Amino acid sequence: MTKQRVAETDQGIQEEFNVHVYDAMMRRFRNKGWLVTNNIIGAGIRSGHVLEIGPGPGYLGLEWLKKTDNTELSAVDINPDMIETAHRNAAEYQMECRAHYIVSDAKKIPFDDNTFDGIFTNGSLHEWSEPAFIINEIYRVLKFRGRFFISDLRRDMNPFVKFFMYTATKPKEIRPGLISSINASYTVGEISDIIKTTSFRKYIINKNPIGIVIIGKK
Questions:
Q1: 17, 127, 176, 199: most buried, per Cβ within 10 A?
Q2: Taking 80 as the threshold, does the pLDDT of residue 15 lie above it?
Q3: Cα angle 195-30-34, degrees, rounded to a multiple of 5
Q4: CB of 195 within 8 A of CB of 205?
């Protein structure tokens, strides 16, 4: 039986130490080729002006920019320390002209209706205290026929997979955060019930050994 969901903060990673540790983990993910960049491109998000929600230290969006041509990325994160880290990493990638980071709550995305050709987010869904509200914000700022990609952990993953993820997660200081994120994540059934209440009608929800992937278009 799947344990009851334990909500996590919707304020992101706030302490400077945790931001530093999270950056180290995501840099390692980047170096190992574990980011979902190719999945985003495979979902049809490969051109134009794209929004990332919850970029953290920025590696996913920066890798997306590196693998696409004539593209531009805007990203919103509630944590100013993460935004500062993402700016530094964009400079390392020499992507300052194509990557733009803004401190903002995703419940009120600071862009006009029908702005973006695509929107993606990875690993932030479980932090949203009002997921239907944010998904409707995604709908609002997405252009007609624009595509979206949402991926996250799922709470009902196989215990052996969960154990492998725990032992493979480095630096080890981030492991308690991994467990709280898993405990706060949704099942396919739960997120299906949520997205049915939003404005989106063209989408599919898939699961993999560790998580959930929602792809669709406006």
A1: 127
A2: no
A3: 55
A4: yes
* CA–CA distance, 41 with 72 (Å, rounded to integer): 14
Residue 3's pLDDT band (cuts 50, 70, 90)? confident
In whole angstroms, give the CA distance from residue 5 to residue 33: 30
109: closest CA among 85, 132, 135? 135
Is-contact 162 178, C-beta < 8 A? Answer: no
Phi, psi (rounded to 5 degrees) for 180: -65, -35
Q: What's the rounded mean pLDDT across residues 18-40? A: 95
Q: Token pair for residue 171? A: 């630096």
* DSSP β-bridge partners for residue 51: 74, 119
* Mean pLDDT, the chain, integer: 94
Tell me the whole-structure pTM to 2 decimals.
0.95
Structure-token pair, residue 13: 């990673």
Rounded to whole angstroms, how far apart are CA atoms 142 and 172? 38
Please tell me the distance from the alpha carbon of residue 101 to that of residue 58, in angstroms, as a whole number: 9
Query: For residue 13, what pLDDT is reported?
Result: 57
Residue 16 has pLDDT above 70, yes or no: no
Q: Tokens 């049915």 correspond to what residue?
A: 196
In angstroms, the CA 144 to CA 72 distance is 18
Residue 41 pLDDT more than 60? Answer: yes
CA-to-CA separations, 190 to 54, 105, 134, 204, 205, in angstroms, rounded = 21, 23, 16, 14, 11
Rounded distance between C-alpha atoms, residue 171 and residue 178, angstroms: 11
For the chain, the residue count is: 218
